[in-house]
Amino acid sequence: MIEAVLTLTALGVVLGVVLGLAARFFKVEGNPLIDEVEAILPGIQCAQCGYPGCRPYAEAIVNDGEVVTNCPPGGMSTAALLAEKMGVDLDLSSMEEKEKTIAFVDESICIGCTRCFQVCPTDSLLGAPQQVHTVIPEVCTSCEECIPMCPTGALSMVPIETTVQTWHWHKPDSPGHQARTR
Ligand code: SF4
Ligand code: SF4
Asked: Residue 79 and residue 67: Cα distance in Å, rounded?
């Protein structure tokens, strides 16, 4: 019995050392700036920037000098913070502050085909075959991927109503941003 306990303990120690060494020697050095840029982005992976998620867009900004105004959900405040982080001048003239919207199902014309349900990347749609579908507003990221899928036009994007729950304090422009956009 003691031999078994000692053997298992020794095995655990050896495996622990091996894992520790592996973590040290096979560590992938990432660019910390990409992490910081990604942290500024909304993180909703909606792909509206044209990249398959926030991380690839952050990598393109840092590695390829991609413009910082490609994130519609983030809007002008996110673009300003990205420009601040990258130390680039910000031309907001090409950017439109997109109205915050979420998907909405007109249940009177929904036929329960489940096409929207199958494409939603955040499982924001609830429904079953031949049953009326509906949207979970708190989960919808406004990626609009479901809209072209609906054969009856039951799906549309509607403005997010400003309530105590949905109102949020806009980040004030930083002194550096104000200087750059004057
Ligand atoms: S817009 Fe549609 S597909 Fe996108 S998260 Fe909302 S419900 Fe899902
Ligand atoms: S795609 Fe349109 S009709 Fe089909 S389930 Fe979704 S909302 Fe209903």
From this structure: 9
Protein residue with its CA nearest to atom 2 in ligand 1: 146
Query: What is the position in ligand 1's atom list of the atom closest to the CA of 145?
Result: 3
- What's the confidence (pLDDT) of residue 130? 92
pLDDT digits (tens, 9 = 90+) for 105-129: 999 999 999 999 999 988 999 999 9
150 Cβ below 6 A of ligand 2: yes
Give the model's pLDDT for residue 153: 93
Tell me the torsion sign for CA atoms 56, 58, 59, 63. Answer: positive
What residues in the chain have per-residue pLDDT under 50? Answer: 180, 182
Where do the structural domains in the chain lie, given as residue ranges? 32-89, 98-160
114: left (phi over 0), alpha (psi -120 to 50) or beta: left
Spatial CB neighbours of 133, under 8 Å, sequence gap ≥ 6: 105, 107, 110, 112, 114, 116, 117, 125, 126, 127, 154
CATH of the structural domain 98-160, one choice from 3.10.350.10, 1.10.760.10, 3.30.70.20, 3.55.40.20: 3.30.70.20
Q: Whose CA is nearest to atom 2 of ligand 2?
A: 150
CA-proximal residue: ligand 2, atom 1 (nearest): 150
What pLDDT score was predicted for residue 90? 82
